[in-house]
Write a sequence for this structure.
C-alpha cells in the first residue's frame, strides 16, 4: 500500500517515488531488543557493502518516541532512513508486533512479509533477495 511519511529529519518519503528499487520495508521500535540487534545487522550490511542504486532499507517506527530514537541513531551511527508513523501506516500493513519486514520488488509489488528479525549482514541474504526481487 502507498504511503507518505516524514523521516526523523523531516524529509518526506513516498513509496511511489521508490519504484525501480528493491525496498526492504522494516517496522521496528527502540524498545524492542530483537529490533535493535536487527538494526545493527542492517548497519553492518550497509557499512560492508555501501548503499546501492537498486536497493533501499526503509525503516518505520512502530509505537515509539522519535526523540528517543534520534538519540539512538546518533549514538549507533545508523545510516538508514527512519520514518515516523502515526499508527495509520502500520495499521494498513497489519503490523501486530515488531520487527516485521515487507519485501517490495522493483515494480512496487509487495512480494513477502517476514515476521521476526533478519540477520541482514549474513552474506547470503541480500544477494538472494536482490535476485528474487529484481
Amino acid at each position: 500500500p502507498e504511503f507518505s511519511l516524514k523521516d526523523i529529519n523531516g524529509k518526506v518519503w513516498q513509496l511511489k517515488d521508490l519504484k525501480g528499487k528493491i525496498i526492504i520495508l522494516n517496522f521496528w521500535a527502540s524498545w524492542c531488543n530483537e529490533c535493535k540487534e536487527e538494526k545493527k545487522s542492517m548497519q553492518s550490511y550497509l557499512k560492508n557493502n555501501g548503499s546501492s542504486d537498486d536497493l533501499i532499507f526503509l525503516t518505520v517506527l512502530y509505537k515509539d518516541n522519535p526523540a528517543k530514537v534520534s538519540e539512538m541513531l546518533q549514538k549507533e551511527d545508523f545510516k538508514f532512513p527512519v520514518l515516523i508513523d502515526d499508527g495509520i501506516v502500520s495499521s494498513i500493513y497489519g503490523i501486530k508486533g515488531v520487527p516485521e519486514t515487507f519485501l517490495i520488488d522493483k515494480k512496487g509489488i509487495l512480494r513477502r512479509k517476514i515476521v521476526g528479525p533478519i540477520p541482514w549482514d549474513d552474506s547470503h541474504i541480500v544477494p538472494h533477495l536482490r535476485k528474487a526481487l529484481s
